[in-house]
Amino acid sequence: MKIGILSDIHVDINFTDKDVVTPAICRNIKKNSMDMVIIAGDVASDYKLILASLGEIEKQTNIPCLYVPGNHDIWIENYPEKTSWEIYELLKSYPHNLANGSYEINKDWVVIGDLGWYDFSFGDSKYSFNDFSNMKYEERIWQDSIKAVWGETPLDMHKYFINKLEKQLIKYKARNVIIITHVLPIQNFTVQPPSPMWEYMNAFLGSSEYGELILKYPNVKYAITGHVHYRKQIKINNTEFICNCLGYRSEWHENDDAEIEVNKAMMTIDLIDRD
Ligand SMILES: [Fe+2]
Fold it and tell me: How far is the CA of 175 from the centre of ligand 1 (A)?
């Protein structure tokens, strides 16, 4: 069982005269004979484009493309009449959106996941909870504070997602689990060492509570994440934590070709190794 892993493909930001990322992903999947692919959020800040991109991947490759929404994916900037909840619900029309529920690979393996949110636990403790609630560092505004319109506090959103994930972890205690959150579950994947700005902004990258929850369940073999545009891996106890982002064209280190970068960025895991 060969599974491709990629996050933060940002097909809108990486657009040239057309979407060049989705076709590159399809070709990579076919070339590597993958059985499944996981996209850990941030496909685009336009739900119609997201549904088109994910649908195209499944149509072209004939394999399941499992997905969790990212924070960009629920932004309202292109649909100001909608709330983020409405966009989150519209994204559920994609059958392999894990916000709909788990995906059972076979009797041994199950995949669960969702967006997740943040509780400021990764921010530097020299700032107060109220400081983080402003979501603004000098002149830089964390865009979720404008574009993610949940009508709930960040902490309440974090609680919503962690409760949903915990229920699934309890349900699947007897299986090997792959868990996907767009936001970060461990501090190792935050911006380190942080600049003064990131001492503040790390607060919006995830929550240590996801990592603590995951590590209570040794049957979680993989914890896959995105959001921070790094490509990193670290094993803690029984769990391989993977953050594997394509990121923005401007971050591709002198490379402007989506095909080259997708081929560099795509990683694979083989479940046979871990049975
Ligand atoms: Fe992103």
Answer: 30
Q: How far is the CA of 119 from the centre of ligand 1 (A)?
A: 18
Helices (H), the chain: 21-31, 47-61, 84-91, 129-134, 144-147, 154-171, 196-201, 208-215, 258-265
φ/ψ bin of 65: left (φ > 0), alpha (ψ from -120 to 50), beta (otherwise): beta
18 and 10 Cβ atoms separated by less than 8 Å: no
- Residue in 35, 63, 36, 69 with CA at minimum distance from that of residue 51: 69
How far is the C-alpha of 57 from the C-alpha of 139, rounded, in Å?
39
Q: What are phi and psi of 217, to 5 degrees?
A: -120, 95
> pLDDT of 106-134, one tens digit each?
999 999 999 999 999 999 999 999 999 99
Tokens of 259: 């095909």
DSSP H or E stretch at residue 114? strand 109-114
Residues spanned by the domain of 178:
2-274
Whether the per-residue pLDDT at 274 is higher than 60: the answer is no
Give the closest residue to 76 by CA, choosing from 96, 90, 57: 90
Please state, in angstroms and rounded to a whole number, the distance separating the CA atoms of residues 21 and 64.
18
Rounded to the nearest angstrom, the distance between the alpha carbon of 81 and the centre of ligand 1 is 23
Give residue 275 CA to ligand 1 midpoint distance, Å. Answer: 32
Global confidence as pTM = 0.96
How many CB atoms neighbour CB 130 within 10 A?
7
Report the CATH number that the domain containing residue 166 is assigned in CATH.
3.60.21.10
Question: Rounded to whole angstroms, how far apart are CA atoms 53 and 73?
Answer: 12
- State how many domains the chain has: 1
Q: How many residues does the chain have?
A: 275
